[in-house]
Amino acid sequence: MTKKIKMKNTLVELDGDEMTRVMWKMVKEKLLFPYLDMNIDYYDLHIKHRDETGDQVTVDAARAIQKYGVGVKCATI
After folding, report:
1. Interatomic CA distance for residues 18 and 7, integer angstroms
2. Can you give the residue range of the structural domain that contains 68?
């Protein structure tokens, strides 16, 4: 097995709704996780979770991006 590349910085992951969630999971499992040792700060931005938290999860995710300087979210389709 190939040695994984260790990421120094934390990546803020913003998970989305419906098919984007499924597609992003596939990308991570096939293209990222086999090759990268990543520190991930995860936020569930599914509409139900945003409603449950009164959008606080969105504010928390934005603050995490400010803190770590990088975030990734699969595009909405």
Report:
1. 28
2. 5-73
What's the CA gap between 31 and 13, in Å, rounded?
Answer: 15
**Of 66, 14, 3, residue with least CA distance to 40:** 14
What is the tally of structural domains in the chain?
A: 1
Distance of CA 33 to the CA centre of its chain: 13
pLDDT in tens, 5-50: 999 999 999 998 888 888 889 999 999 999 999 999 999 999 999 9
Listed in order, strand segments (DSSP E) in 1-77 are 5-15, 36-44, 71-73
DSSP conformational letter for 29: I
What contacts 32, CB < 8 A, 6 or more positions away? 38
